[in-house]
Every structure is written in structure tokens, then in C-alpha cells.
Write a structure and sequence with these properties.
The N and C termini lie close together (10 Å). By secondary structure, this protein is of the alpha/beta class. It has 7 helices and 5 strands; from the N terminus they run E-H-E-H-H-E-H-E-H-H-E-H. Helix 1 crosses helix 7 and helix 3 runs parallel beside helix 4. A 5-stranded parallel beta sheet has the order 2-3-1-4-5, sandwiched between helices. It has one domain: 3-Layer(aba) Sandwich (Rossmann fold).
């Protein structure tokens, strides 16, 4: 990453971990920032949509994450600190997103929010868009073992949105989230 270019922060974790709340706070704190909610890009598909947690959605998910990467790159190249929030699994969707951003010469950071499963489930039950509990457990489990990316995990258990944003900002400033 060049010092003159703001990084793109990919903020991820299981549903209900607090990604969207923390991403909004981080973006609001910056002088120039964009908060891209990857979920919105999936909602643009009106016919032929496959729920992104289903195995048969792999091609759709790679396409959508590539489009998210193009939008993120355009904002970051224009001088905006860009926060991409969504389910960006290290074994499936991180690579296409990271590759497109790196190809644009941008610094990329990847932060994985960690919250206990009961906390995530409780938050999701409060939302109107709550979906299948089995899918939530599968997605939560997908972030348990990050392998070489374990250092990118940010423990947000017991933290409110502002405190979670503070923890992410510290990890970002320390360079711990660079990928």
C-alpha cells in the first residue's frame, strides 16, 4: 500500500457479529470514506438469485464479490477510505476480492469480527431478515479456523458497536489486518 492511498478494509465475520454497525462507525469517523455493504449487491439480482450460503451459489458469489471489488477500487482510487462489509469467507470469496483490489495497486486489510454464536443468533432473531438457523451455524463455523489469517481476527465479544470500531481501528493502525 502506498502511503498516499487509503486502504480498503474488508470487514467480515458471521451474521450478527456486528459488521455493518462497526463499518458504519469507522466510515463516519474518517474525513473521506465509503461504506459498501456487499449484501446490497446481492439484492440487485432479480432473477436467477441463489441464496449466497448455498453450495450452488459459488459462481454467483464470485461474480458479485468481483463487482464489489470494482466499486471499492473506484472509491479508494478516488481517495476514499473504503470499508467493504459482508460475509467474505477466507476460503471462498476473499481471493477474488483481494486480487482485484491488489491489481488496482490498493492496500487491502481484512478484519474478521469474532462474537460468540449465541450473541450472533440473538442479534439475528431481532432482525426482520433472520434466516435459517442451520445456515447461521455453518457460516459462524466457517470463521472459527482462519489458518494463516488468524491474526486478522478481532474479538468483539462483549463490545458495543463503538468499542468494536475502536478495536478494529487499533488493529488496522497496527498493520495487523493487512493481507
Amino acid at each position: 500500500m502506498q502511503a498516499s492511498e487509503p486502504p480498503v478494509l474488508i470487514l467480515t465475520g458471521p451474521p450478527g457479529a456486528g459488521k455493518t454497525s462497526a463499518a458504519a462507525i469507522l466510515a463516519e469517523r474518517a474525513d473521506r470514506a465509503v461504506h459498501l455493504e456487499a449484501d446490497a449487491f446481492f439484492r440487485f439480482i432479480r432473477a436467477g438469485y441463489v441464496e449466497p450460503w448455498k453450495p450452488e451459489s459459488h459462481d454467483q458469489n464470485r461474480l458479485v464479490m468481483g463487482i464489489v471489488a470494482e466499486a471499492a477500487a473506484a472509491y479508494a482510487e478516488a481517495g476514499y477510505f473504503t470499508v467493504v462489509d459482508g460475509i467474505v469467507l477466507p476460503r471462498w470469496s476473499l481471493d477474488p476480492l483481494r486480487e482485484r483490489l491488489r491489481a488496482a495497486g490498493l492496500g487491502v486489510a481484512y478484519g474478521v469480527l469474532r462474537a460468540p454464536l449465541p450473541v450472533c443468533e440473538g442479534r439475528l432473531r431481532e432482525r426482520e431478515d433472520f434466516f435459517d438457523a442451520e445456515a447461521i451455524v455453518r457460516l459462524w463455523t466457517a470463521f472459527e479456523d482462519l489458518g494463516e489469517l488468524e491474526g486478522n481476527a478481532v474479538d468483539v465479544a462483549g463490545l458495543g458497536p463503538a468499542e468494536a470500531a475502536d478495536a478494529i481501528a487499533r488493529a488496522l493502525a497496527d498493520g495487523r489486518l493487512a493481507v
